Amino acid sequence: MKTFWNWVSNHTTAVFMIIVMALFVTVSIAQFTLQKSNYDTAIKIIVKKTISTVEKQATDIESLNKEKTSLQKTVKRLEGRKMQEKDNVKNYILTYYKTVAPIIAEEMAIRIIEKSTEHNVPFVAVIAVTEVESHFNPFAISPKGARGPMQVMPRIWVKELQLSSKYDLHDIEIGIDSGVRILRRYLDATDNDMRKALYKYVGGNYPYIKQVYESMGKFIVFKSFTDIKVSEDEGKDEVAITDNDKTAVEIEKTLTTKTKPNILFTHIIKKGEMLGQLAAHYTGSIHNWSKIAEANSAIIPNKMPIGSVIIIPTNLLKTTKPL
């Protein structure tokens, strides 16, 4: 034992170094163990957060997929509605204006729906203005020089709308776009008052406003009957109107009930037509001509200008088939 302590006393420096090294190793091992423990804890926290983030992203993706599916259905439904409206406009033109070629009616319908949507103008108003102005004739020229389907005045609007020439107005797309843009300007200037906008559009003419509104009513009535379609779900001869979900039975009641005279049905006078002829065709009795005359107080029965719009009271209607 003495020999050991003698050796220690003779090698104090070496012993001190051994003790220091032992302490260093012990501390290092302790630090490593602590660091490993902290590292493991940190790893667990990171993994937990990653899992939570992935789960949240998966939920978000699922929610986005549902929204995408819903939007796709909405877009599909709107596209179908747009196509149906286009067909309604086309059929309306071809029904009342036999001289308009189908290809012209198709293009006219497409552009009316497209431009009214683009410029946020009611497409029914665009249809009515186009009907009153040109009877859907893209080549129309008025005595005052207005041109195209919506009868735009070149001397005022060609430069303003940045058109290359007045002949551009006979192009269906440009002609409709020009008219709708002008109407949109007047709607903006009148706080979206359609009557005031129409008054400005025509340059001050109250009878014109009445004609346009009668044309709107005429199209709405036409549309309410042409919107009837066979129910795909039932696979039967059941029908439904897309706008107001009326049944065919309710439509018949609308036509025959005297308490529903507020729905307009109109006819545009053609050469040689008389009130008695209209009464016989639409109401089934020539004697109803006087009642039609009462509903159109502004007309003179034996002097009806070609192109006049005649209101047929709906409580008298037996058919909506054009004369």
Helix and strand pattern? HHHHHHHHEEHEHHE
Low-pLDDT segments = 228-263
What would you say the CATH architecture of the domain at 77-216 is? Orthogonal Bundle
The CATH class name of the domain at 77-216 reads: Mainly Alpha
Structural class comes to mainly alpha
Form type: rod-shaped
Q: Looking across the biggest beta sheet, what order are the strands in?
A: 1-2
Give the count of helical stretches.
11
Largest beta-sheet details: 2 strands, antiparallel
Topology summary:
Layout: H1 2-10, H2 12-96, H3 102-118, H4 123-134, H5 154-157, H6 172-189, H7 194-202, H8 206-226, E1 229-230, E2 239-240, H9 248-256, E3 266-268, H10 275-283, H11 289-295, E4 309-311
Antiparallel strand pairs: 1-2, 3-4
